[in-house]
Structure formats: C-alpha cells, structure tokens
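Hey, quick one: can you model this chain's 3D structure?
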Amino acid sequence: MIFFHLEPINSDQKKNFLKSFFFTEKIYEIRRFFESFSIERQVKLNITKITIHVNSSVYTVLGVLSAFRNVSFLLSSLVGKR
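Sure thing. Here's the predicted structure for all 82 residues.
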C-alpha cells in the first residue's frame, strides 16, 4: 500500500531547501510517481513537505510542486526507512 501526506513548511525550511538543493536519479523516480497522480490538481502550495509511506518504509521529502501540465518535482532531502 502506498499513500502520502502533504503539509506546508515554514520560511526557514524553505530557505534551507533552496540552499541545499541537489538532483539524483532517485528524485526522477519519485517525480514520475507523483506525475502519475496528477498532483498539481490537488496541491496549491509551492513548497511542501511530503511524507511517503511505502508498506512499512517511510520517506520524507521537501519538494517544489509546480502547477504546470506535468509536475516538476524537485527534492532536497530523502530520509530513508524510519
């Protein structure tokens, strides 16, 4: 079972996100995952904290969600299994 939770982040977290941004192949996989949900129709926030639950593994990401036709998902941090 896969589900996710979205919540806004504060301005300090936003600054840290912009400072520490990086791009990896893993981000691309997560981006494809979210594109399949057409998440741009559900989320109006520009910068969002996303918790992804995949079975018993929990991943937390900070990302940018754009309102374009295809979601542009950028990831600053991915915290593995908790």
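One thing worth noting: Confidence is low (pLDDT under 50) at residues 1-6, 18-25, 38-47, 62-82.
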